[in-house]
Amino acid sequence: MSRKLDRGVCENCRKEFSYFIVHNGFNDTVFAYCDSCPCTTLLSRWYERIPKTAQLQAEGPIAEELEQLLRPCGCGGKFRGSARPRCPHCNGELSAVVARSWIEANAPGTASGWRWDGVWSGYYSIVIENRMVTDNWRDDVT
Questions:
Q1: 3, 83, 89, 105, 133 from 92: Cα distances, Å
Q2: Contact by Cβ (8 Å): 119, 125
Q3: Residue 52 carries which DSSP code?
Q4: pLDDT of the residue at 53
Q5: What's the N-to-C CA distance of the chain in angstroms?
Q6: N or C end of the chain: which has fewer CB within 10 A?
Q7: Tens of pLDDT, residues 66-96
Q8: How far apart are the C-alpha atoms of 33 and 100, rounded to whole Å?
Q9: pTM score, whole prediction
């Protein structure tokens, strides 16, 4: 699947990176960010192998009690609903408020009144430099 990649700028190191925004409501997913690198996980509410103990809430970040059901990130970090996206260059956390300027500048809907909600805990998530895994539930839980 091909996605349009937009350009963002890290407020920490000022370097550019590519990204795309996901509307988790339209996508019917929940999400989490790695606490150690710029990776995002998207968890489909339609995935057939969701652990039975996982009660997925409405679209948005994954609930803290479900984080233990996810496989660790490839970098060794943990996916957390409370983590923030990170810059792929300096690994600094990105501010959703600061990101408003480049997200709205790139979004076609801005011209007709759409505005970024300015939080990483809402309906929208971000995937930085295509660093994403999907449905990474641990195999040893049911």
A1: 25, 12, 8, 22, 20
A2: no
A3: T
A4: 82
A5: 30
A6: N
A7: 999 999 999 999 999 999 999 999 999 999 9
A8: 18
A9: 0.93
